[in-house]
Amino acid sequence: MSMDSSTEIISHFIGIFDQVVEAARMRAGYEEFSADKAAHPDAGPLLNISINVTSPFVEDSVDVGLPEFWSPPPVGSLLPPSRFTLPELQQDIPFVDAMFFGGLPVGFGLPLAGVTTVIALNFMIPPPSSMATVNLQNAFLWDDDFFSNVDLGVEFTETSVFHSALQVLKAQTEALQILEFPAPPADGESFKVISDMIVLQAHEAEAPDWAGVEVYFAKGSATSGVTENGVEVETAISFKDVLPDILQADEEPEGEAPLPLTGDEDTSAEAIIIEEYHDDDDGGHELVTGGNMMVNEAFTGTNWLDAPIIAVMGDFVSVDVISQVNVYNDMDTFHGTCNGAGNESTTQAVNSAAFSLVSNPIIEPLAEGEVAAGGSGPAHVAVTRIDGDVVNVNYTQQYAFAYDNDIASVQFTASETYIMMGGNTVFNSVSLVELGFYYDLIVCGGSMYDISMIMQTNILLDADNIYLESHFDGQMETSGNLLMNQASLTTNGVDTVEDATEDQLAAVTAMGEGSDDVPSFFRNEDVFQDVDVLRVLYISGNIIDLQVMDQTNVLGDADQVAVAAATLASETGADIEVTTGGNALLNTAVLAEGGIDSTVYAGGEGYSDALLYQAELVDFGDPLDGLGTGNTDLASEAVVFLAEGMTSEAEPEAEAGVPTPDYGEAPVDVMQSILA
Fold this sequence. Notes:
Elements lengths: L4 H35 L60 E3 L2 E5 L5 E5 L2 E3 L6 E12 L3 E3 L10 H18 L13 H15 L8 E7 L5 E4 L2 E3 L5 H4 L26 H9 L6 E5 L4 E14 L2 E4 L3 E14 L3 E3 L12 E11 L21 E7 L3 E14 L3 E4 L5 E5 L4 E14 L2 E4 L3 E14 L3 E4 L6 E3 L4 E11 L2 E5 L2 H11 L7 H4 L9 E7 L3 E14 L3 E4 L12 E4 L4 E10 L4 E5 L3 E13 L13 H10 L35
Parallel strand pairs: 5-17, 6-18, 10-19, 10-30, 11-20, 11-31, 12-21, 12-32, 13-22, 13-33, 14-23, 15-25, 16-27, 17-28, 18-29, 21-27, 22-28, 23-29, 24-30, 25-31, 26-32
Antiparallel strand pairs: 1-4, 2-3, 7-33, 8-9, 8-15
Helix pairs in contact: 2-8
C-alpha cells in the first residue's frame, strides 16, 4: 500500500534518526575498544585453558560383598551348587496341574462271570518347594565439589571435617536403634536362628527414655492401623505431597495439553532432570548445592503356603516388627544478613507405619441361627510328604551413602546464570512377587514361624555455612529437607491358634511314622464339608516364613557458600536464588502376605506379637564441636558403636559424653565402618 507524501517523509525521518542514535552508541563503544587496543598493541597468543579432572577413586573389579556361597557358577555348569542345607525338593511324582489319577489295572474273577478289569485310583498332589533370596544393595556417592570465580576473602573449612562429623552423627543414630538387624543367612540352619533372634528381641524390647528424643513405642494390638510420628491417622501421607519444592516435578498448566514431540527434542535423563530443576523463563541467577534425593525401595508380595486347618507338633510363632529412626542436624550459620533466610530449620521428618490384618475365610461364615447345608465330607485322601523344612525367606538389605559437601565462592557477572553442584539421585530398588501352594490340611512335625521385620533409618547432616556480602537481597533456602520412613505390613488371612488335643497329637505322630490315615476329627471340620478329595501335606521339619528388610540412607550435605552481592543485572542481587537444602531421604518398604483364615492346632506354645518403634532426634549442636553434646542420655550408647580408633583409651572420662573426632585431619578410611 502506498503512503502519502507526509507519512513517507515522517517514516524516513524516524529511520534516519534510529540510524544516527545506533551509530552514536556504536561509536562510543568502538572508541573505548580502540583506545584499549592501542594501549596493548601486542595481545600475545590466544589463551588456551586445559581442564584436568582428578579422582581419588580407582576403577576396580566389582565386589558385592556376598558370602562365598553366593559365588557365580563354575564354567560349564548351568546352576551353582547349593550351599544351603535345604530339604530335597524333587520327588518321584509326575507333575500335572494340581492333581492327577493313575494306577495299574487289576484282574479278578467273579462266579458266573468273565474276567473284569478294575482301575485303582491313586490321588497324588505336587509337593511345595522352598524359596530363599538374599538381596544386598549398596550405593555410594562422593560429590564434594569446589567452585570459585571470585576471592571474597573467606577461609573455608576442609570437607574432611564434615566427613568426620557425619560419622559421629551416624554413631549417635546407631545408639537409637533398640533392635539389631540379623546378619545375612549363611546356611539353611540360619533361618531358624534368625527367626528366634527376632522373636526374642521383640519380646524383650521396652520403650526407651531418652532426653531430647521423640519416641513412640507400641506392642500388640496397639500397633494396628496407620501411625505417623506416634499419632494414629486415617491414611498414610504421600511422599509426593511433602517432597521439597526444588524436587517437585513441574506440572502442565490446567487445560493445556503438552505439545507433541517433533523428534528434535533432547529426551535424555540428564535433560529431563535439568528441565525439572530450572525453567529458562524465570531468568536471573540460581545456585544449587543441595536438591539431592536418596531412595531405598523394597516390595515383597508372597502367597506361599497355607491351609484352612494346620496341625503343628511344636510351637506356633507369629511376630511383626517395624522400627523407624530419623536423625538430622540442620543448624546453619549465616555470616551477613539476607531477606528470607534464617537459621531456623524447616526440615521435616516423617515416620509412617501401617499394620493391616484382613480376614479371608475359605467359606462364608454362617449367620446367627443358620445351619450349614454342606456335603458329607471328604471321601478320599491324598497325602504328600516333605522330609525336612519348608522355608520361604526373603532377606533384603539396602544401604545408600553420599557425601555432597560443596564449597562455592560466587560472583554473578552475566545476565543469567545457573549453577548446579548438587541434584544427585541415589536409588536402590527390590521387587519380589512369589506365589505358592494351598492345601486342605497341613501337618507339621516341627514348629511354624511367621516372622516379618522392617527396619528403616535416615541420617542427614545439612549444617551449612553461608557468607553474604552486605546489601545482599537475594533468596536463600538452606533448609527445607525431608526425611521419610514409610513401611507397610499387610496380611490377608487370620490365624487362630488352639491347643492340640491328645488325639490330634497322636495323629500327627502316626503320620510322622508313615501312616496316611487321616482321623475323622480332621475330616469332619466344617471347612471340609464340600471337599471330595482331602489334600494333605505332611512336613517332618519346620515351616519358616521369614521376611526381613533393612533400609538406611546417610547423606552429608554441609555446604559452604560465599556470594557477592553485586551483579550486572541488579546491584541489590534481588534476582539471585541460592539453595543449599531441599534434600529428600526416603525409605519405603511393603510386605504383603496373602493367605486364608486358618485354625492352627499347636502341640507347643502359641505366641503372637507386634512391635512398632519410631524415634526422631534433631541435633542442635555445631558439627565442628562434636555434634549434640547436650544429649547426654545417648552419649554412653553412642560410644559403643563408634569405629575403633575414634576414641582414646587413655582418656576414660571421654566416655561420659558424645565423642568428638579429631578434626585436624581426615581418617585414613573416611567411610570407616561403612565399608568394613
